[in-house]
């Protein structure tokens, strides 16, 4: 206690002198502060510029890191999506193989029915051509038959006319021979007329027979032509029916295959769509890298500019701080 009291006494005694010294120093400090203010301001300004560039550098480096992280995440997501799509495509391909196996029998039936339609189509075309040809040829045959009938009638008339001349000629010959004094020339002429008519009758009879034979042949040809037209028409009708039946069978086969074909087409469309999506996802990493390069170009430029600007600013700050 005594020591403390003594310390208090000594301190109290020393306090006025210390306060006076403090006031003196404080007075000197005010002047010193005034004199170093320009240097302190320069130091603060230099420090601000250095901090500004360091802040820019730190911000841009953070942006660069964030961009790299975003790029890596986007690439990883694209690769994962591509893997999932690839798995889905494989699943769809298996389903497609199963549907194709199921479709094999109906498709075979459709092919067989299609193959059956083609020859029947050709057979119908051939039957129609045969019918058309027969129909085109029939009028000529009919006309020939009618012309042959007319020719027979004309030949028979010619024969009848020639035969009608025979009796008068024979009568003239008999009269010439019956005269009291027969005229040989007259008799010869009458005989020649009778002979000529006999020959003419024979020729006319031959012509009639020839015309009748031609008529019979023309009638036969006409009958055959009519039969050919009818036969060809029947063949066309038969071929049409056979083609109709074949087409109906094909339509039934197509109808039976339609549901499975629909499944196949649906799966194929899904595979095509997923394949397109897969290609896009597979191309995504390169596109992401490209976009990333474009995005970070200005960031890298800003970082490079900050790093270039920082050393001289740090030097200026060090000089200002040393001076302070």
List the helices and strands and how they pair.
Elements: H1 2-178, H2 184-323
Helix pairs in contact: 1-2
Describe this structure in words.
The chain has about 325 residues and is mainly alpha-helical. The longest helix is centred in the N-terminal third of the chain and has 177 residues. It has 2 helices and no strands. It starts with a helix and ends with a helix.
Query: Biggest β-sheet: count, sense, barrel?
Result: none
Principal-axis shape: rod-shaped
Quickly give the structural class: mainly alpha
Question: Could you tell me the number of beta strands?
Answer: 0
Portion in beta strands = under 5%
Low-confidence stretches: none
Order of helices and strands: HH
Task: Name some characteristics of this structure.
0% strand; mainly alpha; 324 residues; 98% helix; rod-shaped; single chain
Give a nutshell description of this structure:
The chain has two helices and no strands. It has helices spanning 2-178, 184-323. Helix 1 packs antiparallel against helix 2.
């Amino acid at each position: 206690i005594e020591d403390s009291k003594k310390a208090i006494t000594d301190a109290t005694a020393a306090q006025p002198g210390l306060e006076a010294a403090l006031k003196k120093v404080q007075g000197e400090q005010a002047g010193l502060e005034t004199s170093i203010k320009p240097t302190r301001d320069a130091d603060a300004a230099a420090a601000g510029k250095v901090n500004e560039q360091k802040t820019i550098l730190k911000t841009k480096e953070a942006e660069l890191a964030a961009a790299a992280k975003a790029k890596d995440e986007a690439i990883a997501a694209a690769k994962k999506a591509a893997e999932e799509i690839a798995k889905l495509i494989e699943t769809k391909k298996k389903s497609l193989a199963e549907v194709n196996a199921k479709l094999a029998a109906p498709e075979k039936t459709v092919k067989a029915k299609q193959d059956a339609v083609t020859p029947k189509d050709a057979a119908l075309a051939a039957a129609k051509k045969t019918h058309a040809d027969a129909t085109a040829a029939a009028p000529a045959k009919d006309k020939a038959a009618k012309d042959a009938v007319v020719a027979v009638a004309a030949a028979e008339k010619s024969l009848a006319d020639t035969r009608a001349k025979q009796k008068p000629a024979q009568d003239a010959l008999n009269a010439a021979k019956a005269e009291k004094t027969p005229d040989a020339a007259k008799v010869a002429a009458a005989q020649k007329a009778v002979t000529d008519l006999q020959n003419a009758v024979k020729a006319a009879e031959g012509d009639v027979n020839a015309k009748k034979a031609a008529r019979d042949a023309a009638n036969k040809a006409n009958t055959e032509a009519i039969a050919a037209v009818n036969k060809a028409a029947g063949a066309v009708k038969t071929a049409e029916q056979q083609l109709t039946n074949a087409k109906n069978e094909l339509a039934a086969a197509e109808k039976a295959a339609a549901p499975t074909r629909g499944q196949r087409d649906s799966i194929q469309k899904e595979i095509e769509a997923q394949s397109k999506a897969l290609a896009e996802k597979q191309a995504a990493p390169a596109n992401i890298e490209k976009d990333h390069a474009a995005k970070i170009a200005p960031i890298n430029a800003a970082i490079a500019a900050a790093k270039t600007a920082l050393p001289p600013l740090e030097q200026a700050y060090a000089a200002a701080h040393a001076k302070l």
